[in-house]
Amino acid sequence: MTSPTPPEGASGDLADQARPLAAGTRHDLGRLADIRVPDSAAAAEAERLARAESSPMLYGHALRSYFYAALLAARDGMRYDEELLYVGCVLHDIGLTPCFADPIRPFEHVSADTCAELAERHGWALPRRYRLHRAVVLHMAPTLPPAEDTEVLLLEAGVACDVTGARSQEVNARAVEGLLALYPRAGFKREFTQLLRSEAARKPLTHAALLLQGLEERIAEAPFAG
C-alpha cells in the first residue's frame, strides 16, 4: 500500500454550486480504492477554487488525475506528500480557465504560481512550496528524469494517465470504472483538445504549442470513451 507522508469562468450550475463554499462547505468527493482525499484547509481551498472556476470537463480531469496518481503510487510502492500531490493535481490546469488565463505566460506557470500562493497562505515552508510549483510546471515537460521528486513524477503520471491513457493498463480495471462513475469524462477528448489548441495558437512558443500535434493524436487514441 502507498504510505503518503502526512503533512499537515465556470458558468451556470457549476458556478451556482460554488457560491456557498465561502462558508467552508466541503464537496463530497467520494472514495475510491481506499484512496484518501486530504481534508486540510489548503486542500479544501484548492478544490473549491477548481470547482468554482473550471468547466465540468476540466474539474473532472483534475480530480481523476489525483486518483490516478495515487493509484499508480500504490502500485509502485511510492511514498509521497499526499496534500502536496492533491493540491497540485486539483489546480494543475487552473491557468486554462477564463478567470486565470494569461495572454503571454504558459498556463502551467500560471497554475503553478496559483498553487504556490495558496500554499503560502496556508503556511507551507518555502521548500515545500517550491516542490509544489515545480511539480505543476513540469507536468508539461516532454520527459522527466527518474531522479525527479516523487510528487513531480506522480503528478505527471496521474495527468498523463487521464489525458492519454499512459499506464492505465496498470491500474485495476474496477478502480478505473469506479473513478469514471464518480467523475465522468464529459466530452474530455474534444473539449480538452480545443483548450490546448487555443493555448497553442495564442502562445506559439510554449510547451502546449510544441507538443500539440503528437499530444492531439495520443488524446484521440486514449483507451477511454469521450
Top keywords for this entry?
globular, mainly alpha, 10 helices, Hypothetical protein af1432, 226 residues
Any overview of this molecule?
The structure is a single chain. This protein has 10 helices and no strands. The chain is an all-alpha fold. It has a domain of 148 residues: Orthogonal Bundle (Hypothetical protein af1432), CATH 1.10.3210.10. The two termini are 31 Å apart. About 10% of the residues have low confidence.
Tell me what the CATH architecture of the domain at 39-186 is. Answer: Orthogonal Bundle
- Roughly how many Å apart are the termini? 31 Å
Name the beta content range: under 5%
Number of distinct beta strands:
0
The main β sheet shows up as: none
Number of helices: 10
The CATH homology group name of the domain at 39-186 = Hypothetical protein af1432
Q: Kindly report the CATH topology of the domain at 39-186.
A: Hypothetical protein af1432
Radius of gyration in whole Å, from Cα? 16 Å
Query: Which consecutive residue ranges, at least 5 long each, have pLDDT under 50?
Result: 5-26
* CATH class category of the domain at 39-186: Mainly Alpha
Inertia-based shape: globular
Residue share in helix: 55-70%
Q: For the residues shown, what is the average pLDDT?
A: 89
Secondary structure category: mainly alpha
